[in-house]
Structure formats: structure tokens, C-alpha cells
């Protein structure tokens, strides 16, 4: 029998692939606009929790566009980023508490300030932009609620194909195919994560009674400059690539943490293997080639 899961954000970049890959094991119920639920509306959330037999909630819904979230900052607690990421999470947390459901909250590497060499789960959060701040406020609500919870931080997720929203790998491929010039950041570190690995990790996480904070991130941290060259090589593409610094690249955009090398030792110890960026690229290249998506 499939395990029932009450989910949010399951129509998104990450969530839709989770449903595709884990649909044989779990019976997902998505609380989304498509199913008539706005998570900022507490009554709608409570009603859907009341009607659900699921004992686990996977909360992924968020306003995720970092620059658009920054534009919301002037609206403070009235703005969409706060309403979805904080009030929406508060509604989910309160309903999880009321109906005694275990909560898995999906968070982000952007809760960190990027000044350390690397980040483990227990390191202090210090978000630098509004998106990161709203997500870290969400983490705080989850931690303080006295419920069974897990916080799962993700970082730069990518997959073979998702037509609704292009991840960074897809954006680079599409630009290179059109022979557009690429700007490659040299003084910035990130940790790309293959979404199929997130699904495998969640498979275990949702089944086990784990508690606490976990980094479900890729096994390799690198500069966007190096990532771009790896993508071009893997997909046999050629276009102009100009090296740029953060100062130029992020001008007039939300401030981004400089070094987001997240450690994933905690999940590795559980037997979960997260692919390196090279391995993830090989896998999506294979999936695209074989149309296995
Ligand atoms: N993408 C990244 O680079 C990244 C990196 C680190 C962590 N994360 C985290 O991973 C999670 C998933 O990210 P993603 O990129 O897959 O998201 P996404 O593609 O931007 O999708 C956002 C999801 O949230 C739902 N949603 C937004 N507002 C809602 C509301 N008021 N009520 C109900 N549902 C609402 C959307 O539903 P509709 O389709 O119905 O609009 C959609 O399913 C997020 O929590 C994000 O913070 C993402």
C-alpha cells in the first residue's frame, strides 16, 4: 500500500520530479492553486489537513525567485514573499501541530551568509537577502513549534527537463544553443544538486522517523565558471564565455552569499549518495539522450 503524503509545492521544479520518481511508493496529495488551496489561507490549510489521513507533510511551496523576493522587501510582512514563505509556513506548521503530523520543511542554502569555507547543518544562519530571510524565518517557525520535524536544505537543483521553469543548467544549454554569450562568475562558489538524488534522499527521509536539519545537496562545490565549462563540454556546445566577477554579475540584483559550499556528511552517513556535478550532468545528458524523462 502506498504511504499517503500531504504535500505543498509539488507542481514546482523539484516537487514535480519527486512525484514522478516516488509516485509508486507514496500517494501524494498536493495543496496548491491547481487543487484550490492557497497556503496563505489558514482556513483552507486546516480544512485540507482535517480531511487527510496522511501522517507526513512535505512542505515545499515557496516564492523562490530571489530577485522578485528582493523586490517584495519594501512591502515587508504585507509582501508576497513574506506571505507565502513565512505566513504560508506558519499555517502549515500550526496545522501539522493541530493534527499531529510530522513535517518535512524544504529550505535553502540561502539561509547562510557565504562567508565561511563551508557550511554544516548546525552552522549559524545569517541570510543576506529577503528570500533567504523569509526561508530562515520559516525554519525558525518549524523548529520552535514543538512538532516532529525535519528541515531539508537544498541548493541549486537541476534536472533533465521541466518546461515550466528552467534551472541554471537548462538556461546555460539554451543560451549556448542559440550561440548567446555566457557570463561566467569566477569568484563565487555554489553546490548544484541533481534533483533525482533529492528524490532518492526524500524516499528514505519520508519513510524514516528522522528529526532535525539535513543538507540534501550535491557532492561537489564549484564556481559557476567551472560549471559552465563542464556543461558546454558535456553537451558538445560552443559559445563565447566571458569571465566576470560578482560585482558585475549581480549589479542591481539581490545580494547573493559568496561561498555556498554546503556539507552533506549527515545524509552520506545514512547511506545516501549524492552525485557530483559531473555525475549529475552525465545522468541528465543520458536521460535527455534516451528520452527517459
Ligand atoms: N529552485 C531553487 O534554486 C531552490 C534552491 C534551494 C531551495 N529551494 C527550495 O525548494 C523548494 C521548491 O523549490 P522549486 O524551485 O521547486 O519551486 P518552484 O518551481 O518555484 O515552485 C513553487 C511551488 O510553490 C507553489 N506555491 C507558491 N505559492 C503558493 C501558495 N500561496 N499556495 C500554494 N502553493 C504555492 C507553486 O504552486 P503553483 O504551481 O500552483 O503556483 C509551486 O508548486 C522551495 O521551498 C525552495 O525554497 C529551491
Question: Spans with pLDDT under 50 lasting ≥5 residues?
Answer: none
Helix content: 25-40%
CATH architecture term: 3-Layer(aba) Sandwich
Strand order of the largest sheet: 2-1-3-4-5-9
- SS class: alpha/beta
Number of continuous helical runs: 11
- At the fourth level of CATH, the homologous superfamily is NAD(P)-binding Rossmann-like Domain
Bound molecules: NADP nicotinamide-adenine-dinucleotide phosphate
Can you walk me through this structure?
The protein is of the alpha/beta class and 293 residues long. It has one domain (3-166, 192-219, 262-278): NAD(P)-binding Rossmann-like Domain (Rossmann fold, 3-Layer(aba) Sandwich), CATH 3.40.50.720. The protein is 40% helix and 15% strand. The strands form 3 sheets. The chain has a 6-stranded parallel sheet, sandwiched between helices. It starts with a strand and ends with a helix. The site of NADP nicotinamide-adenine-dinucleotide phosphate has 28 residues, from helix 1, helix 4 and strand 4.
Features of the shown structure:
293 residues; two-stranded parallel ribbon; 10 strands; 15% strand; globular; binds NADP nicotinamide-adenine-dinucleotide phosphate
Secondary structure layout plus pairing:
Elements: E1 3-8, H1 13-22, E2 26-31, H2 42-50, E3 56-59, H3 66-72, H4 80-98, E4 102-108, H5 130-144, E5 149-154, E6 157-158, H6 168-177, E7 182-185, E8 193-194, H7 195-207, E9 212-215, H8 224-234, E10 241-244, H9 246-249, H10 265-269, H11 277-290
Parallel strand pairs: 1-2, 1-3, 3-4, 4-5, 5-9, 6-8, 7-10
Helix pairs in contact: 1-7, 2-4, 4-5, 8-11
